[in-house]
Amino acid sequence: MNAVSTDLDRAAADAFATRENLREQWEGEASTSHLVQQGELDLSHNVILYLDDITVSFDGFRALNKLSLEIDAGELRCIIGPNGAGKTTMMDVITGKTRPDSGKAFFGQTIDLTRLTEPQIAHAGIGRKFQKPTIFEQHTAFENLELAMKADKRVRRTLFAALFGDERDRISEVLRQIRLDKEADRQAGLLSHGQKQWLEIGMLLMQEPRLLLLDEPVAGMTDDETERTAELFVSLAGKHSLVVVEHDMAFVEALGGKVTVLCEGSVLAEGDLATVQEDPRVIEVYLGR
Amino acid sequence: MRTPFTIRLIQSMPRTGWIALALFAAITWIGVPVAHLALPEGHPLYLSAYTVSLLGKILCYMVVAVAMDLIWGYAGILSLGHGLFFALGGYAFGMYLMRQIGRDGSYQSDLPDFMVFLDWKELPWYWAGSDSFLWSALLVMALPGLIAFIFGYFAFRSRIKGVYFSIITQALTYAAMLLFFRNETGFGGNNGFTDFKRILGHSITSPEMRVTLFALSAALLVACLILGRYLVTSRFGRVLAAIRDAESRVMFIGYNPLHYKLFMWTLSAVLCGIAGALYVPQVGIINPSEMSPANSIEIAVWVAVGGRGTLVGAVLGAGIVNLAKSWFTVSFPEYWPFFLGFLFIAVTLYLPDGVVGLWRKLRTRKAELPPAAPVSARGATTATLPADARPGVQPDATVMESGAPSIAAAKGATA
């Protein structure tokens, strides 16, 4: 399941099967555009993400089964769970890649995620990092950040866009944050695996999202890089809300936030890491009967 | 401070590029007209009417190649139907040329000859306005643009990509060819349009007109290269290349790939249409065979031979293949299709980055060698030194220089 839904090129293969679904997605951009103003994100109940009773089935297999989840504004949440628990599908639902069969998904109090397209959701303030680093390998690190930068992303703007001084400064700042300032003009495809992961995180930061979804962000990183990533994430929490899917328990522990355990498409347990690890149901799921 | 637009336009091309363009402009706008109009026929630099028309025709092909490179090399969308847009532009202008014949046709009628032959009494509705130069000039751009826009909208919205897209474009041009072959369609059936007499009242066969059309074609090519260069170095161009390399990521950072592809696709078709309109008066004929699938494939071959994603490669490729073609079709006409097929296979296998890629490879290889060392001594030096101590070899630098373009082109090829 994980492997299938993270395969980025799947969109191409799926073009025919999901055409009806996609047609809905691209239409009505004008009619819903009032929702995608980031300023309108309503956090009055201090909840930034609200999933209720979400069900997603693929050919009869229930990837998500009445999943309900709430993320508070500024929270750093870790999602763990065995393979096939529905972690990536959950991310797909939040970012608009997959439409739920039933259930509600709200960003803040007012933005209905099930009605928006992927770019609209990105504009609304949700950034996503994939399991496999997906960066623009032909572009330099600097250009990768430039493209990700929060800006007017319509064709007529990009045709004449040029960087303002403060935009350059912002890119340099993020380059420093992700420790790639010396690699700014290097082609991204030539960076190390860990550096690519960092670059992708940097691209998320350039979007200035309110909510960051991070799918296994430290996969393939060295211990040192993992540690620095944890520091970065902890420093981001508060200003941003983060949802981190991770298998690396040491990393989860370093993050120190609330932990949600997913199993067979719904929430099995929730709480801090120590409590969750003592939960007999969790132990059963991880260790088997 | 933001860099002003004009500065960015100038910076979009390296200085050598501007110098080359200026040289090209000087030759095509001054050199060729002088050689054709002012020099006596026996002069060694005299250019015959045949040569000027042939070169003008190739200039139009070069424009098509640049348009193709913009959509294939930079957006990764391989169209095997670009001949359709070229032909539509040609037909749109051909209608005007047919009306300019006036009563000088074989039947001395106000209607074009083929309509008299079909016993039609009046012009079909879609010929309305075809006697106006301005309307026809508009149609030359609007018709291919509109067809490309509608087709592209549905294709890109349904996220049809790669080989599926290529096959559909191929089918599109084939269907259009069958449609235009029918006499009832109203475009002269399989004979198409020919026997043109004048443009804006001036004779089409006069040397001055020939040179004007040639210079206009050259101007169009220069304009396309400047426009193309600006596009691919703008943020728009970077988004386009990003869509080619990782479309999902582009969507998740908030760009709608549909709009980007559609813009480039439509613009590319419009450029082909203009090229077609300049092509028709220079060759004196337009018929449905211009829409044959083989023609569209040939356009892709030009770009592949020259090198995808370089613009200048497209120009070189169109020039090389067409010069070879005009020699081949005179000397061994029946072998041309085989040669073309062989060329495509050979380039795909041995020159994936085309002529430009080969040039770059040779240049980096030259840069790796010690500049002052004589040829005979060089073999000895490299042999005695360990690999990593060879003078001038900097592993990182060479990867950066030679790796970049080849990966770019390979990516384009997979799409």
From TrEMBL, chain A:
Pfam family membership, one = BCA_ABC_TP_C
Q: Which SUPFAM superfamilies match?
A: P-loop containing nucleoside triphosphate hydrolases
Q: Which superkingdom?
A: Bacteria
Q: Which GO terms describe its molecular function?
A: ATP binding
Q: Which PROSITE patterns match?
A: ABC_TRANSPORTER_2
> Which keywords does this chain's UniProt record carry?
ATP-binding, Nucleotide-binding, Transport
Q: Which PANTHER family match?
A: CONSERVED COMPONENT OF ABC TRANSPORTER FOR NATURAL AMINO ACIDS-RELATED, HIGH-AFFINITY BRANCHED-CHAIN AMINO ACID TRANSPORT ATP-BINDING PROTEIN
NCBIfam families xrefs: urea_trans_UrtD
Descriptive protein name = Urea ABC transporter ATP-binding protein UrtD
